[in-house]
Design brief:
Elements lengths: L5 E2 L2 E2 L24 H23 L6 H11 L7 H6 L12 H20 L11 H12 L22 H16 L3 H11 L5 H32 L2 H32 L8 H20 L6 H9 L6 H27 L4 H5 L1 H28 L4 H11 L7 H9 L5 H25 L23 E7 L3 H11 L10 E10 L7 E4 L5 H5 L1 H16 L4 E10 L4 H11 L4 E5 L2 E3 L5 E4 L1 H13 L3 E6 L3 H6 L9 E7 L3 H11 L7 E10 L7 H10 L5 H4 L2 E8 L2 H11 L5 E5 L10 H4 L8 H7 L9 E6 L6
Parallel strand pairs: 3-4, 3-7, 4-6, 7-10, 11-12, 11-14, 12-13, 14-15
Antiparallel strand pairs: 1-2, 5-6, 8-9, 10-15
Helix pairs in contact: 1-2, 2-12, 2-17, 4-11, 4-12, 5-8, 5-14, 6-14, 7-8, 8-9, 8-15, 10-11, 14-15, 15-17, 16-17, 21-22, 24-25
Family: Belongs to the monovalent cation:proton antiporter 2 (CPA2) transporter (TC 2.A.37) family. CHX (TC 2.A.37.4) subfamily.
Membrane topology: Multi-pass membrane protein
InterPro entries: Cation/H_exchanger_TM (IPR006153), CHX17_2nd (IPR057291), CHX17_C (IPR057290), CPA2_transporter (IPR050794), Na+/solute_symporter_sf (IPR038770)
Amino acid sequence: MNTTTYIGHCRISFFNISSQGFLENLKSPDVVFGYSLPLLEIQIILIFFCIVMSHMFLRCIGVSQIVSYMIAGLILGPQLFDILEKSSGKLSADPALDGTAALRCISVFGRLMFTFLMTVRTSRRVAFHSGKLPVVIGIVSFFAPLFSLSFLNLFTDNIDPHYMSLDKALAERTVIVITQSQILLPSTTYILLELKIINSELGRLALSASAINDMLGIFAMIVATTQATYIHVSHATAYRDLVAVIIFFLIVFFVFKPMVQWIIDRTPEDKPVEDIYIHAVILTAFASAAYFVFFNMKYVLGPLIIGIIIPEGPPLGSALEAKFERLTMNVFLPISITFSAMRCDGLRILSQFTDIYFNIFLTLLILVIKLVACLTLCLYYKLPRSESLAVSLILSYKSFVEFVLYEAVLEEKFISQATYAFLILYSLLSAGIVPMVVRSMYDPKRKYVNYQKRDILHLEPNSGLRILTCLHKPENVSETIAFLQLFSSPIHDFPIAVTVLHLVKLVGQINPIIVSHDKKLKRLHKNSYIHTANLAFRQFMQESLESVTVTTFTAFSHENLMHEDICTLALDRTTSMIVVPSGRKWTVDGMFESDDLAARQLNQSLLDRAPCSIGILVDRGQFSRKSYVTSKNRYNIDVGVLFIGGKDDREALSLVKRMKYNPRVRVTVIRLIFDHEIESEWDYILDNEGLKDLKSTEYNEDILYTERIVTSVVEVVKAVQLLAEEYDLMVVGRDHDMTSQDLSGLTEWVELPELGVIGDLLAARDLNSKVSVLVVQQQQQQT
């Protein structure tokens, strides 16, 4: 069925949307593709089919899924199926309404939404949060490649006039220099997320440098567009466009920004933003794109600037992400990237190589200049060589985000199809190779490998104790303070330095950040839980008679990367132990309520990577409540240490020895001895050395010591269950090196492997006890 109407010799540009299916014409069932909706549906199906098939093979070698989007575009492009060409004449002779129009609209929509959401999710503070180095790198990495502008006039005699006029060829070279000099923040953010190093110091450095470079790039883009209008259109139009941009900035900062703040202020805490405001913001972003197009600017600038104004995080930033992020990233963005790659005709690179070889040279020259400039600056500021090279590669990374620029200059005839094809393939190679190279040379775990002993066992007896405590939820405050009270003492010779870290899941913001509470941050003052917790820790510090100092931080981070912030802060604060909640929650009566799987996963990551010792606290409620009870009795907190053997048990023993200075705490050490223990083993000798001083009468007043002989695993379980009835808090080691074979029968029944065998027994949901548990793992030191 022909959906196009003819009047005389004129062809009217309109078409039907939906068909009656394949049964409409059994002899030619493909007639349905003369309708816009079935044609769009088959295009989308082919795109995602090629994406899935490509990624099925590429993921086996660790290649990013984004590469699959690009390869799908190449498969559907002119080299193979040429979907765009076959679809173009299906609906109308009008290029604006041809068979690719709907797909092109979805592609543009995807770019707009991606640019807007990525900008909303990016913290503006990141640009100035890593010191002087990222500012210097951001500025130098933008201006150093501009040195290649001095090469523009080389080989101009060889330019084929059939390929491009001299003026246009020089303009094409200028476009290449400017686009390759830019480091787009979304590209940097994407690769850091892909490599899972966005929370590392290297990640923060790269983000900050990229933000500085991107701001310079936006300014350069506005200037270049205005200059092009001035030269190729008219002087008056260029002045009009520049004034329109200035007016836009004034409206955004003095009208739109106060309106956004008004929306945030009138939204109650922990309540969602009303849909009408979310839709108004999205429509404003689209209107800004139309505004910039009308005034001859790149349409992505509008959503980008609107996104900068919207504060990251809740309530508005997180609401926008929750509503649009999945649809954009999983549907619109793949279509957009594939559509851009479908326009890449790789054969033109070969057929017009003599015309574009200088463009290829310029691109590679800028890559080398940028690598050398970034590498030199990093080495000058004493960064390790591998990290310097990793930062340089990340800041030279080109990916799908640059497609927006390439398509814009292609449509405006500033670059040829051959140059466009080369830039697409260059981005494809960069997106596939750079992540694998960076992953091979930079392991974020290595920064936490500590060759110095940073645990409690090796501290000087009278030295201060440094502890980092982490809080997820309000109920963690009381249990953490109760634990810290065990070490407070009226004797100032044994100070305790406590670092409190509030862990906040990052929602609606893509850049992690650690904020000291010494800084006045509006968001922290609005969070009633954090404010209340800080007051509680301040009161605890005042009641500790100056023996305890407390410093508080808040980490806004992704759940799967929170361990990076904790480990980084532990290194910076030179702590001997990190104490984290277990994630298991109990009712007031001591009954099991729920498990926080995210907290448990975090604890497991910390056990693998932490630069110091780790303590996992399981609070059933009685311990934290009893700690707040004021009593004249000297011993009103009973702490039991179950000692079986191994370095973790020795670390747990060293920890509780520091509780003897608190007159409210009574410590009992119970050693379980297997009847077949071998005294010649080195661990056994170290265990006896650690316990030797407890047997003297000097310690008996504060620390009681008993021994029990066990012959089987069954007796161990019974002993643990009996001890759980006698104490408020049990402190145990996670691993028991030399006796692990004796406890091997229990490992298959372990529910919480991060707590170890004994810790799991004491934290079991069916254990009829109100005892709390602290499971200790000594620093995992590099051998």
